[in-house]
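Entry, Tuesday afternoon. Goal for today is a structural model of the target with zinc ion bound, before we commit to ordering more compound. Inputs were pasted exactly as handed over by J.K., no edits. I checked the ligand SMILES twice against the vendor sheet because last time a stereocentre got dropped in transcription.
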Amino acid sequence: MTTLDDTIGVLRRTVCALHADLTRYNLVTWTSGNVSGRVPGADLFVIKPSGVSYDDLTPESIVVCDFDGKLVDGELSPSSDTDAHAYVYRHRPDVGGVVHTHSTYATAWAARDEAIPCVLTAMADEFGGEIPVGPFALIGDDSIGRGIVDTLAGHRSPAVLMKNHGVFSIGEDATAAVKAAVMCEDVARTVHIARQLGEPKPIPQDDIDRLYDRYQNVYGQ
Ligand SMILES: [Zn+2]
């Protein structure tokens, strides 16, 4: 029989390993990004500890928090973004993973308070439309979490650019949320480069719908 401790142990290893993807894909500098994952069957999630370098992360160092962002298990303090992750888990029962980064190109769009328009078939596939911008929000209360949830409620996109800040992405699990963060930076870069030489051409909405539907429901093994 699998105990809650076993489940948390597996999730700690998964979320620890996923932080290596943040550095592999150049999404983070110093300790600026974090990954969390919902504990199946419990009102808990695991998240990166605050201020620990990616090279020093171990599964044991990943902390367990409740949906109020309070530390439940672990030696270290949770990430300073824990309240935002907790808010998302509280309000989105469908979300199993949350990622936050300040990845360069996506954050440049956030700095301009500008949504990334859907001008690539890969964007239609993954995001089903534009990647929206959420409100300017300061750390310390629910305003970042609320901004993420409220903005994503009106979009298919699993990623949101928080104004003047950076990217939050969600997924059915932590791996899917990391994928969304990686793809968000990739399309942010491509559309930025496209804009240097002209105005990128929008994709008609019915084609976006067809691409999104095929990719979400048919593509893959
Ligand atoms: Zn941040």
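The beta strands are 34-38, 44-47, 63-66, 71-73, 97-101, 133-134, 159-162, 166-171.
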